[in-house]
Design a protein that fits this description.
Order of helices and strands: HHHHHHEEHHHH
InterPro entries: OGF_rcpt, OGFr
GO molecular function: opioid growth factor receptor activity
Largest sheet: 2 strands, antiparallel
Organism: Aquabacterium commune
Keywords: Receptor
Radius of gyration: 15 Å
Protein name: Opioid growth factor receptor-like protein
Shape: globular
Strand content: under 5%
Amino acid sequence: MTQSMESIRNYLGYGGTDHRQRTLDEALGWDDAMLESTHDFVQWWFPLAEPSAFSHHAPMASLSEFEILGNDERVRVGVERAMHRMLRFYGLRLNASGVIEKTDQWDVRSRNWACRHTHNDLRLTRMLKSLSLLGQRAHARVLLAALEQIVNEERASSEATPLRFWREALL
């Protein structure tokens, strides 16, 4: 197990810390303003196989390591917790039937991302890729379906470019 893979495993599933000594539990407790203004947590919640352009502290794993991580039940639970927190941040939730829907906070939470391109589009791309890598492909597909509907309802066609990246994240 590489050091980076072990860092991901420990952070997502075993109470480990990120590069700033923050645990997943601590970060999951942040309010929405903190999530919006903090830009180095999402790389830990949703790690990838390639380096981050925004945080040189972001852990990475190989595709074979992601397969191992995706089979670790505690890591799976950790990434699902992170996914649910980010959905709430966006004004969404995964309902009991497995569909992502808007919450009663949608009108407030969607203002900073749903109608125009923001850094949250990049966060969503990362989420989709990471969920797929970590064995949560079904959740990634459901999220993509919700995002496609939201973009079609909320954005002008000139603002729909992220759809291409979101779809490619699941290839």
